Amino acid sequence: MTAAVIAAFQFPDSARVDQRVPKKLLLENGAPTASAKRLISDAIEDIQWLAALKPNTIGVPEYRDTQREYLEVAVLAVSLRGATKPASLSRLAELVHRAVPYPVLLLLAEKRAEGPTLTISLAHKRWAHNEAGKIVLDGDLVSVSLFQAADGTPGDDVEAAPDIKRDFMQSLAIARQPKASLHALYEGWIVCVQALHAARRTGIYQTAATPEQTAARRQALIDCQRLEGEISRLRAEAAKEKQLARQVGLNLKLKRIQSELAAAQQQL
């Protein structure tokens, strides 16, 4: 799976690096605490620097404004020793993103009992507001595990929605991303990840065409995730409730939340 996804990006030979990165560098630069060092040491098997996307390797201009500068996008592939808990996987991704001074297109490969899983992770970066010269993450990580349903069921995209898989993979090609700047290029892949999350709910893969559509979809996805969590909680509470009046109240609330979810899904 990892090789197929890497090939889908269609990085030009001029940008390929294909070098192993010693884990020691990540421990030195991306592990601020003892628990972070343990996580890196225990979970990561191998780190590969796949490509360096720079103006002289892909012909896309660098980007500068008052908040950030994008001189390069680093493409890294991290192989994990085995299945990783979602919280640990997210923490690992965050540590890698923080350790590299450039925006990172990160591929995390896991070996699970039901089959290998690959997670694509991205995160914009900016200058720190209170410390000159320091670079920090700008907002939350944007990530997606391939290929799963919205509820995390492995293999759903492959077996039940082959069109979604095909369209997503085709959309990853570097030639199909915006070329105005490295920032726009990187944002293009974030748009692709958001489109896959939306497709798992709508059944149709379609990237947002404008920044306004991108922002609206981002908020709709946040709302969907929040409402789906609330629905799961209410269903579990209703299943345990013994009093009839309380059950009726929970079911009415559940229907209201489901209506809100349907409205949020319409914005995808």
UniProtKB/TrEMBL annotation:
Residues 217-267 form a coiled coil. This is DUF4391 domain-containing protein. The keyword Coiled coil applies. It comes from the Bacteria. The keyword Coiled coil applies. InterPro entries: DUF4391 (IPR025503). The lineage of its organism: Bacteria, Pseudomonadati, Pseudomonadota, Gammaproteobacteria, Lysobacterales. Keywords: Coiled coil.
